[in-house]
Specification:
single chain; alpha+beta; four-stranded mixed beta sheet; 5 helices; 43% helix
Length: 122
């Protein structure tokens, strides 16, 4: 799944050849799975020259990530702090702690619906 998501990201953003290995190295240290079927994979360190990005995958059916079932994957690369990064992580923490918000996002069937519901989570 991570390789497939990285391959899609590479179509839009140049990534280093070892990017998947960087992410897997981070996962080996401690899984990035959370409650409410959410995972936040990311590399351990920031590579220079890569634009900030967030890639979101919603799976039709949950998969076992490490020890928890995951259905919503937020692939995150944000080496710099900014207001938008803080806003995003605030939203994610609210989703992780809110069963209803997570179920609502998992049920979305279009990008537009997902983006609208994500933005309104409080």
């Amino acid at each position: 799944l991570l390789k497939a998501q990285i391959d899609l990201i590479k179509k839009e953003i140049p990534l280093p050849e070892d990017f998947l290995n960087q992410v897997l190295k981070r996962e080996a240290m401690s899984s990035t799975e959370y409650d409410n079927r959410i995972a936040l994979p990311h590399p351990l360190t920031a590579s220079e020259g890569i634009s900030n990005f967030i890639s979101i995958a919603r799976l039709d059916k949950p998969i076992l990530w490490n020890q928890k079932m995951v259905q919503l994957i937020f692939f995150v690369f944000t080496p710099a702090s900014s207001k938008s990064t803080a806003w995003f992580f605030d939203k994610i923490s609210r989703i992780i702690c809110n069963d209803e918000a997570a179920r609502t996002l998992i049920a979305c069937t279009s990008y537009e619906d997902f983006a609208e519901r994500f933005a309104t989570i409080q």
